[in-house]
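Raw record, unedited: Class I SAM-dependent methyltransferase
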Amino acid sequence: MNTKLLHTEVQQFIQDNLQKDLPSLILKGSPFKEISIQELAGQILSKSKCQRKLPTWFQTRGIYYPKPVSIEQTSSEITAEYKSALVDGDSLIDLTGGFGVDSYYFSKKIDKVVHCEKDKDLSDIAAYNFKVLGAFNIDCKHKDGIDFLTNANNDYDWIYVDPSRRSSNQAKVFKLEDCLPDVTLHLDVFFKRSSHIMIKLSPFLDITSTINSLKFVKEVHIIAVKNEVKELIFLIEKGYKGPINLRAVHMINQSTEAFEGSFPSHREATYSLPKKYLYEPNSAILKSGLFNEVSYQLGIDKLHVNSHLYTSNEMKNFPGRSFMIQSVTRYNKKLIKKAFGFSKANITTRNFHESVAGIRKKTGLKEGGDDYLFFTTDLQDKAVVIHCKKV
C-alpha cells in the first residue's frame, strides 16, 4: 500500500479522472512526486469498476482500491448482502477473504468475523478499508485460510470459503475438485471447527456433480442478477441427511424472484400445445434444473420435454418473462417474414435446430420492436414459431 494515494489532493485527482481516457492520462505522467502514474491509473480503473458493483465502496471517501482483477473477482454488494441473510451466530471465518466484500456484509450479522487473505497487500487493503467503513468487528489475518484453520484452536459458527474459479494455469474450471483450494480435500478439517459451511462457487459448475462431491449438503442457492447467474451457494450442515433444498433467486431492479424445490425432484410435468400465455424461465431457474417442479407447483404445461417453455390459459405469477401468444406458425424460413408482416423482432430459440444469428440471416428480421418470436419444438416434435407480446 502506498498511503500517499490517500492524501486529499490525490483522492481528488482520482475522482476527477474517473471518466477520462486512461491511455492518454498515462502518457501525461504523474503530477505527484512519490506516486507513479501506474498507481494512479490502477486506482482510477479499480474505483470505476466499483460504481455499480460496489456502490458503498465507490461512494465512501478514503477507500483504497486493489488491482482491478481483485474487483472483478469479488462478490457484488447485492449478492454479498443476500449471503449475509443466510448466516447467524457469533463467529464466522472467511477463508478466502480477498477484497473483503463478503466479510463486510457478514460482519453486519455476525459479532466476530475473521478475514484470512494470503496476499499481504490485499490483506492490508481490506483491513484499512474495514476501518474506513466502520466494520471494527472484522479481524484480518495475513494467512492462508486453510492453514490458519488447521492450526486454530477456535471453533466457529460458520466457515465461508470462495475457491478460485481458475486452475493453477489460470484456465476456467468446471469441476469442484479443480477449484483452488479444493474444498473436498479439507472438509474434515472444516467439520472439526464448525458444523455450518457456506461455499461460493462458479455458475459454470454442475450442481448435481458438486452435490455428489460434497457431504451433508442442506441447501443450494442459485443467485442470478439481471438474468445472469452470478454465484452458486452451497450450505452444508454437519451430519445433515435430509432432502436438499434448491432455491433459484433472480434479483433485478430492487425486486427478487425466488422459486424453491427439492433435489432430486420426483415431480412429473404436464405437457400441451401452446395455449393463451407463454412463459420463459429466468436464468436461475434454467440453471437449477427445476423444470418439472415449475410445471407442478404453478399448474402450467411444458411445450416439450426439452424446450423449457411453459404455457397456460390463465395468467400466472411466473419466475421469468410472461407473454401473450398472438399466433403459432410452423417454421418455414421462406414464409416467416411474410407471415408476420414486420421487419424486426426479438428472437429467442429454445430446443431449436438453428441459432438466432442464423434465423436473422435467413429471414432478414432485425433486432428490436415490441414483437417476440420464440423458435422452438412443440409437443408433436414440430418446429414452430410462437409470436408473442410481452404482458
